[in-house]
Amino acid sequence: MRGWRHYNNLVHRYLGYACVGMTLVYAVSGVALNHSRRINPDYMVRVRRLALPLAPPAAGVSLAYFRDLGDRAGISGNLKGIIPGDGRRYRLVFSGVTLAVDLEAKTLEIREKRPRPLLRRLNFLHLNQPRALWTFFADTYCVALVLLAMTGVMVRGGSRGIMGPGGMVLALGMLLPFFFIWLYYR
Which residue among 54, 105, 163, 169 is buried most deeply as judged by most CB within 10 Å? Predict the structure, then answer.
């Protein structure tokens, strides 16, 4: 007859296999979301700077001038809005593209925003935006992680497990979150 450790290891192994996909979803999107101050986790932004392809008219700028400027810069789509600056700088908003026009320096900055195909979808799941059935699935995954952690602690026994060096690593792993709470949540 097999002991409880054999069944513990079976549960741990197969639960681990089942959790791999979700762990990758949360790990990859978690790193991207943790660094959202430096990179936009949902969109890639490409910036190009060029000389103004069309000199401003002497009579002053108009809607027609800005539309023509967009056409000459190779921007397709309708001009959605114009955000005036100080009279010499304007921001033109197109679908997915923003143009920063500096009439004084005679420069044009083109910012194109395109979705990150896979990462955007992973973030969508990570942030629980689908709700409904996904919430149930994500909660089940959390319970599975708790079971995975508990069965993982008991994979090895005696002086090779939590009674030996494994116990010190376990204690460190449990204390680290409390250290960061103490460090940042005062």
Answer: 54
- d(CA 168, CA 163) in angstroms, rounded, equals 9
> Does the pTM exceed 0.90?
no
Rounded Cα gap, residues 183 and 175, in angstroms:
12
CA-wise closest residue to 33 among 86, 168, 25, 132? 25
- Contact yes or no for 174/181 (Cβ under 8 A): no
Q: Nearest 5°: phi and psi at 43?
A: -135, 150
E strand segments, the chain? 43-51, 79-84, 89-94, 97-102, 107-115
Place of tokens 């204690």: 171
DSSP 3-state helix, strand, coil percentages of the chain (rounded to 5)?
A: 50, 20, 30
Pairing of strands 43-51, 97-102: unpaired
| Range 114-150 burial, b when 16+ CB lie within 10 A, else e | eebeebbebbebbeeeeeeeeeeebeebeebeeebee
Residue indicated by tokens 């296999």: 17
- Placement of tokens 């097999």 in the chain: 2
What radius of gyration, in Å, describes the C-alpha atoms of the chain?
28
Residue 176, pLDDT score: 96
